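Good morning N.,

You mentioned wanting to compare the apo and holo forms, so I went ahead and generated the holo version with 3,4-dihydroxyphenylalanine. This is what I fed in:
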Amino acid sequence: MQNDITALSSEFDAALAAANSATALDELRVRYFGRKGGLIPALFSRLKEVPKEQKKDVGDALNKLRDRIESELKEKTERIAAEEAGRKEARETLDVTLPARKPRLGHLHPVTLVRQEVEQLFREMTYTIDPGPEIETDWYNFEALNFTPDHPARDTQDTFFVDVVEKGGHLPGAPLLLRTHTSNVQIRSMEKWKPPVKVLSCGRVYRRDEITMRRSPMFHQAEGFVVDRGIHIGHLRATLEFMIRRLFGPDSKMRMRPSFFPFTEPSAEVDMSCIFCRGAGCGTCSQTGWMEILGCGMIHPQVLRNCGIDPEEWSGFAFGMGLDRVAMLKYDIPNIRTIFENDLRVLEQF
Ligand code: DAH
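and this is what came out, ligand included:
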């Protein structure tokens, strides 16, 4: 019995040294003091086998061992709990002397910046901003804009069709499409609001084009138009000059070249003085000093009629401009892909 007590005593020393967590110490407590099979109670229950004359010594030794195990377990359990609390506190302590982390601010996309700039300058001229739908019917994208079904100008705007056909509408059974230009908004706005109207519309347009340096199957346009009594081409020119000077600087010049669009008559293409060489001639403008920037014209009488507006009483002008191209020119971005790839190293510069 004395031997068992000594053996248990040294077994405990080893086990205590090895137990370094609250759980391990708890397991030890169960091993030595557990109600069922605890080693100390087991030894106590064997006291009755001990011969009478040894009982006191053995009993004393057993009591000492029990007290020692109890107090050493308690002491180490408390120490480990204190250490753990210390580590937790260290983890949670706030070091108020650390420099603050800079918040990471987002950046607006260059096309968004240009769109906001264009919208702002037209808002100042009291235009209504009306983005219009991207999924459109043939009527609003083509027909009402004077593109007859086999009009050759449709070929220049190769169209993505959607797998859904018009239910009611102007051409029941005709497939819906992704608008090829923002000119659909002319018809939609003139339908919604009786003249006089002044509308600016910016948004995405889609064409079945390969991706190249200059082209992408999705791009952005700004469309502006005015319908009122007595509107003439002088109003158009003054408006465009105002816009170009605001976007590209007060010394920017513009010129109009005759052109053709089904929904305007007369029609013009507008060039502005090259922003890189200021008109002197350089590689970007093919030595001409000019770069093409938008299409425009006086709204065709048939288009007004298609919207229930009497062309004898009302007249209007319209223009359409590529916003991606404006962003590329303003920020000197040579490839349209750079605009749509959204590489953060590019976007962070704006
Ligand atoms: N919708 C034409 C296009 O995408 C651009 C355009 C030209 C719009 C002349 C106009 C305009 O409003 O008058 O090619």
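The pocket of 3,4-dihydroxyphenylalanine is lined by residues 181, 183, 223, 261, 264, 295-297, 318-320 (CB under 6 Å).

Happy to go through it together on a call whenever suits you.

Best,
F.
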